[in-house]
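Chapter review: from sequence to fold.
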Amino acid sequence: MESATQLTESVLLVSKTEIQKNLDFLASFEALGSPFVAVQFLDGKPEFYRSSANGFAHTKNFQVEEVFVDLQHFIKYLKILPSAFEMSVAPNGTLQLYAKGSSVGYQTFFVHTTSKSQAGFQRYILGGRNTDFLAHTFAGLDVRHIETKYMSGNPTFSNGKVLIPLTLGTVIWSAEFLPLTCEYSPKFSFLKLVSGRASVFDMHLTDNGYWTATVDGLTVHLKGQGPDTRMFRRQTLPGTEICKFTADALLGGLSGAASFIGGTDFVTVDPKSGITIRDEFGLPAQWTLDEGLSWQKFSISGAQAKLVANTLKQSQDEYVVLSDVPTDTAPLLRFTRGNFAVNIPL
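The C-alpha cell string follows.
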C-alpha cells in the first residue's frame, strides 16, 4: 500500500459517475456524520470512508485513511468537472482535481483538506458476527416518503413487526419472516438504506449491536438500540373496527387533499361529505368515499393524510380498515391495509 508521501507523485484518471455515487451515499447515510471524508488511493482507484456519531460507511476495498477532505466541497467541484478527470495529492498534502479538454480548457481545483485530528473521525468496536438477516428482509417496506423532521424516536423491531414513531403518528409494518425477538433495533437511517428497492447484500447484526450491510456496493455499520417496549405495547394494542373503506377511494382522496394544503392544515373525513379541505385561497375541495358507511367525523393534518396515503399505498389489499384503539394516554385512530398500519393520535 502506498503512503501519503508517495501519493504526492501519483496521478489517477478517474470516473466522475462512480465517485459521485459513492460520495452522495456517504453524504446521506447518517445525519450526524463528520463533515470530512477519508480518501485512500488503492490499486489505481480512490476508496472512501466516513464516520458518524453512530457508525461508519466505506467503499468495498477501503483500508486506511490517507487524506481527509471536506465532503461537500468535494461534491461541489464534482458537479462542474467533466465525466473523467485526474485526481492527485499535491506536494502540500491537498487533494487536487484536474481536467483538460476542448470543452473545458484547463481546470484545476484544490479540495479543502485537513489533518486526521481535525477530521473528527471515531473508531468503533463492532464485535463478531451475531445474527444474519436475509438481504431482502426489509424489501417489502419503503420508508423513503417519511421525512426525518417528523421522527420522534428510533424504530422498534419486535414480535415480527417494525414500528416507526413520528410526531404525526406511528407506522407499523409486519412480515411473517421477521424474527420475533431482536436485541437491537435498527436506527431509521439504517432502515432507510436497506428498505424498499435498495440493492442490499450480506446484512447482519454484530455482537456489539451494529447493523451491517453492503448497499449499492458500499458497506455501512450503524449502532442499533434496545426496543422501546412500552411504546411498542401501546401502539400494538388491539382496536375495535369502526368501518372498512375501499382503499383506492380513501387513499386517493387523502393523497389528493394533502397535495392542495400545507402540512399543518386540516383534512376532514366525514360520512356525509367525504374528504374535504379548504385550499390556500379558502376554496373548498371534496373527494367522495363509500356510501352507506357510518363513522364519527374526524380531522387529521395534511402531513398525517400524506403519511397514511403513502404508507398504505404499499399494500395491494382492497380495503382499509379504520379502528379505534384505546390506550393509557391518548386514543388512536388506526388505518390498516394488509401488513401496513398507521396510528394517528386523537
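Two observations follow directly from the output. The domain at 237-345 is CATH 3.10.150.10 (DNA Polymerase III; Chain A, domain 2). The longest strand covers residues 36-42.
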